[in-house]
Design goal:
Distance between the termini: 29 Å
Strand order of the largest sheet: 5-6-11-7-8-9-10
Mean pLDDT: 82
Largest sheet: 7 strands, antiparallel
CATH superfamily of the largest domain: Umud Fragment, subunit A
Shape: globular
Low-confidence stretches: 90-111, 129-133
Radius of gyration: 19 Å
Oligomer: single chain
Structural class: alpha+beta
């Protein structure tokens, strides 16, 4: 059973750690957080912010994103404690070398529509065997995504969180970018050995080994072997009404 009080306390400890690292004053932190959120269009009451700082609640998704951008930490770390803490580069920009010492920045992402494909197609997508027009429909992606991106409809409850925090229930739409670099703590689509279908899990690492971990603790963790193929990183999601 997940202890919600422990989850809240752990989140609060990480929030204070990030605030310390960012040089935010100790006294009056609630005021500073509230002021920053308001400046970026996230409206929260001072009472809600106080609960985050005192271990009584975990920030909601909109606040979590805004705080992570402000404090320059990864959401997976702040929300779940999954390392690394710091944001490593900008996944929307790729650095290229052009025949010498001159580096250029190429924007490789775009806002646009992507095909909604099946899980069997997602497994084939890993080998570039699936054309984009094979999608059952086209969906507008809410975040920047490469031309090879696609969408999937979540099946089952292995990525449903029984407690607070990020959850991907059945029917949720996830957007996958095969060109985005997947790091520890990221949600990924992977093709596991002896099957043509793909699976949706969290990429984790322990003692130098990598695993595919479901958010729902009732499901087993999957070992990553040489035959496991990471098909792409989940860069966004949408839960239909």
């Amino acid at each position: 059973m997940v202890d919600k009080n422990e989850l809240r306390a752990a989140f609060t400890a990480r929030l204070h750690e990030a605030l310390d690292d960012a040089g935010v004053r100790t006294r009056g932190r609630g005021v500073d957080i509230h002021k920053h959120l308001k400046s970026v269009g996230v409206v929260k009451s001072p009472q809600a912010v106080s609960k985050w700082l005192n271990g009584d609640a975990i920030a909601e998704a909109d606040s979590m994103v805004a705080i992570c951008v402000w404090l320059k930490v990864r959401r997976e770390w702040l929300e779940y404690g999954v390392p690394p803490k710091e944001v490593l580069g900008d996944s929307n920009v790729r650095q290229l070398t052009n025949g010498g010492d001159n580096n250029v920045l190429e924007i490789t992402k775009r806002f646009g529509k992507v095909p909604l494909i099946s899980w069997v197609q997602a497994g084939a997508w890993c080998e570039a065997n699936c054309e984009q027009q094979d999608g059952e429909s086209w969906l507008s992606c809410p975040v920047p995504i490469s031309d090879s991106g696609y969408a999937l409809r979540v099946l089952g409850d292995s990525m449903t969180n029984p407690g607070p925090g990020r959850s991907y229930p059945t029917g949720c739409i996830i957007f996958v970018d095969p060109e985005a670099e997947a790091n520890t703590g990221d949600r990924v689509i992977a093709r596991v050995p002896r099957t043509n279908e793909a699976t949706f899990k969290v990429l984790v690492e322990d003692a130098g080994r990598q695993f595919l971990k479901p958010i729902n603790p009732q499901y087993p963790i999957i070992d990553i072997t040489e035959e496991t193929h990471i098909c792409g990183k989940v860069v966004g999601s949408f839960i239909p009404e």
